[in-house]
Design brief:
This protein has about 220 residues and is of the alpha/beta class. The protein is globular and about 45 Å long. It starts with a strand and ends with a helix. Bound molecules: 5-O-phosphono-D-xylulose. The site of 5-O-phosphono-D-xylulose has 22 residues, from strand 2, strand 8 and helix 7. InterPro entries: Aldolase_TIM, Ribul_P_3_epim, Ribul_P_3_epim-like, RibuloseP-bd_barrel.
């Protein structure tokens, strides 16, 4: 049976022990590392920038997905791509010309993902989904870890799944925010290929085991 792809979000880890956390993730069944970059404008929070990203790259053995919660992310794509990032995910709401940004990401040799805030309808994907490696559906308002999963996103997952089928394309569906072992099964049954999980992994006594359980969703 197909296993769920699991991307631990390091937003809710203790940064004083970032090296230890990365070692745990390296030894786990996690499929990639989800790294949230926030600008304090697109979302009401700041996370981290290039120095931390450099440190992450030195210690992780997992592919890295950068989730850019920043306005006009095209300003930083080249700089980010230098960190051997596997995928860059930008918000449709934050790009003036989404298609151009997706092209730029691909020209830089990275996979391209587009994230949608919970309230954003999926219409904006219709003429671009064929070119995407991934659609990231936010199931919380972006900016903070530890929030409650928004149930209405289950329907949105089904809608994107149907769009992918209609367009006969290969984009994966990633769902991000408030996911745990209790609600995760429903998220996967609705059509998610990948889940981004922060608190439920890093608040547990055994993050490696928590990741293993999520893979069985
Ligand atoms: O992007 C975000 C929040 O903005 C997410 O990646 C969260 O960091 C996931 O953490 P939990 O909701 O699982 O705590």
């Amino acid at each position: 049976m197909k296993k769920t792809l699991v991307a631990p979000s390091i937003l809710s880890t203790d940064f004083a022990f970032l090296g230890n956390t990365l070692t745990i993730i390296n030894k786990s069944a996690a499929d990639w590392l989800h790294v949230d970059i926030m600008d304090g404008l697109f979302v009401p929070n700041l996370s981290f920038g290039m120095p931390i990203l450099k440190a992450i790259q030195q210690y992780t053995s997992k592919p890295v997905e950068l989730h850019l919660m920043i306005v006009q992310p095209e300003r930083y794509l080249e700089t980010f791509a230098r960190f051997q990032i596997q995928q860059i995910t930008v918000h449709a709401e934050a790009c003036l010309h989404l298609h151009r940004v997706v092209q730029q990401i691909k020209e830089l040799g990275c996979k391209a993902g587009v994230a949608l805030n919970p309230h954003t309808p999926i219409d904006c994907l219709e003429y671009i989904i064929q070119e995407l490696d991934m659609v990231c559906l936010m199931s919380v308002n972006p900016g903070f870890g530890g929030q409650r999963f928004m149930l209405q996103i289950l329907d949105k997952i089904r809608q994107v799944k149907a769009l992918i089928k209609t367009k006969k394309c290969a984009a994966l569906i990633e769902v991000d925010g408030g996911i745990n072992k209790t609600n995760g099964g429903e998220v996967v049954r609705a059509g998610a290929d990948a889940v981004v999980v922060g608190s439920s992994i890093f608040d547990s006594d055994n993050p490696r085991e928590a990741i293993r359980h999520l893979k069985e969703l």
